[in-house]
Amino acid sequence: MPKFIIERDLPNIGSADQAALSAAADTSNAVLAAMQSENKDIKWENSFVAGDKTFCVYDCANEALIHEHAERSGFPASVITEVKQQIDPSTGNN
Q: What distance in Å separates the CA atoms of residue 14 and residue 28, rounded to the nearest whole number?
C-alpha cells in the first residue's frame, strides 16, 4: 500500500497542550473510522509536531483519500508527498 507524508500548516500547534492534541487526534480518528466504514483504505500511522506544522504518515490507497480526510476533518493537507523508499541507520554498509 502506498505511504504518504502529509505536511499540515497548523499555526501554534507546537505550543498546543496535551488536551488539544488529544482532541485533534480524536477528530482525525473519527473521520478515519467513518471513511474505513465506507470501505476506504486509509490508515494514520503517526504524526510529528514541529513549530507551526505537523508531519503525518499515512498508508492509503491514493492521494485523493488524503484530500478527503483533510476536508472532512478540517485539518489542511498543505503538502502531500508519496514515500518511495525508506532508509534508517541499518541501511548503510558499515
A: 18
C-alpha cell at 51: 513549530
What distance, in Å, lies between the first and last C-alpha atoms of the chain?
Answer: 30
pLDDT tens-digit readout, 36-54:
999 999 999 999 999 999 9
Cell of 35: 471513511
Domain range 3-85, CATH architecture: 2-Layer Sandwich (3.30)
- Cα four-point dihedral sign 90, 51, 68, 36: positive
Alpha carbon distances (Å) from 78 to 20, 52, 91, 94: 20, 12, 30, 37
* Tens-digit pLDDT profile for residues 11-39: 999 999 999 999 999 999 999 999 999 99
Give SS3 for 75.
coil
List the domain boundaries for the chain.
3-85
